[in-house]
Request: fold
Amino acid sequence: MTEVSIQPNAEIERNWAMLSHLLGLVPIPLVAILGPLLVWLIKKEESSFVEQNAKESASFQITVLIALLIAGWLCFFIIGFFLIIGILLADLILVITAAIKAKQGLLFRYPFALRFF
Reply:
C-alpha cells in the first residue's frame, strides 16, 4: 500500500475552497452571498485557488438571487412557483458538485452564472 502525501497547506486550501461553495447553501440570501465574499477577502492573499473558488461561488449566488427575484415576480403567473423550485434544486445540485470538485483540488465553473468578480 502506498501513501500519498500532500502539502500541509494544500488540504487547508481545499477545505477553504469547499467552504466557500457550501456557504451558498445557507438559506439566508445575505449569508449565502457574503460568506464566499468573506472567504475571498480573508484568503485572497494566501491562495489563488481559494480566491478563484470564492469569487466563482459569490458570483453564482448573486446570479441565483437575481433569478429568484425574477421568479418571485413571475409568481403572479403560476410559472413563477415552478421556476423557484427549479432554481433552488439547480442551486443545491451545482453547489454540492462545486464543493466536491473544490475538495478534489479542481476549479468548478458554474454554468449560467454571471461573472461579477
Summary: Residues 9-103 form one domain. Residues 1-6 have pLDDT under 50 and may be disordered. The CA atoms of residues 9 and 81 lie 44 Å apart. The chain is about 70% helix and 0% strand.
